[in-house]
Amino acid sequence: MLKFSICAILASSFAIANPVPGGVTNPPIRNVYTFPINHFIENIAIRSNSKLLLTSLSVPSLWSIDPTEATPTAPVIHTFANVTGLSGITETTPDVFALITGTWDLPTTRAALGSLTVWTVNFNSNPPVIKNVTSIVNSTIFNAITTVPGKPHLILAADSAIGAVWKVNLITRRYDIAFSDPLFQRVSDTPGENLGINGMLAKGNYLYFANSAQNIYGRVKINAFGDKIGAAELISTDPIVGGHYDDFDLDAGKNAWIATHPNHVVKVRPDGSQKLLQNTTLLKNPTAAEFGRGSAKERRTLYVTNGGEFTPTFDLINGGVVSFDTAGF
Ligand SMILES: *[C@@H]1O[C@H](CO)[C@@H](O)[C@H](O)[C@H]1NC(C)=O
Ligand SMILES: *[C@@H]1O[C@H](CO)[C@@H](O)[C@H](O)[C@H]1NC(C)=O
Ligand SMILES: *[C@@H]1O[C@H](CO)[C@@H](O)[C@H](O)[C@H]1NC(C)=O
Ligand SMILES: *[C@@H]1O[C@H](CO)[C@@H](O)[C@H](O)[C@H]1NC(C)=O
């Protein structure tokens, strides 16, 4: 409640400092799908056939949603045994996705040591083929994962606990810390401040990242093997006090569209200037954002996952996914 009242006060001062150019109002937001109680929706990847793949940190299933349907449903693709939830997901080769499972302690967002496992889900067969790549013995969190450009067998994983990026080779199954940086670090071990590098996307010669605890977005230059070849650069800080950047996507103009707690999506231009879409009704602790695929309309539609919100009795409700058309915003 405190968070929401602080944001309500700041929203008005932000509106004065950053008027919407030309009086363009915020685009309407569509509710695509709301999950039942206690589904903390964590991450999203989108298939070339436009279908959304969603993960939850609190339920060990992978769901598929066809957002082009008028009233979408969310069939389960697979439920993973002996784990409690899923985190990052990324496409590696056409219609093959890597994802992370683990046994999570939700209040601290850490996985039991040894429980993190990297899987691949191959949709080129029906039913999809699901393979265990490797379990990770020495990390407590792989948050977002991203594929190294041009190297479909190499993924990078954000370790929000120790402020480092790991590299996993999907063929040799070897994994290790690749690099770290002061801009990846958490602030403290207090929940809310204990998630350093969180959202991540490798594109071209850069790894773009968001650090939730420090509430910053930036980039770091990488080589063809996904290794860091320069210091991380700060691009922006979320303008809302108490806001926390989470995961994001980049558009063709390298603008980042960042899902931001507790109730906004921020468009960050490459020069660091920002535009804010805030909606307390439909944005409920946004955790990740991804542009649609398929038709021109899908490609300019941003899908935003909602972690959800707690009721006074500590039930988590309204986890799900919403969307809006970014044209003109
Ligand atoms: C939130 O989005 C809904 C749906 O687009 C809209 O009806 C409502 O006015 C928005 N609320 C705010 C505060 O912008
Ligand atoms: C899950 O755990 C049970 C009990 O420890 C074990 O028998 C089973 O093989 C495990 N399943 C998988 C897929 O790891
Ligand atoms: C995944 O494979 C690893 C070996 O790399 C094994 O130790 C682990 O038990 C497997 N996990 C599951 C859930 O099958
Ligand atoms: C983590 O464990 C793997 C597998 O044993 C090992 O290859 C790697 O060097 C370890 N890395 C760290 C940072 O402990």
From TrEMBL:
TM annotation in the entry: none
Region forming the signal peptide: 1-17
Record key words, sorted: Signal
Keyword Iron: no
Protein name (database record): Calcium-dependent phosphotriesterase
Organism: Glarea lozoyensis (strain ATCC 20868 / MF5171)
Classification of source organism: Eukaryota, Fungi, Dikarya, Ascomycota, Pezizomycotina
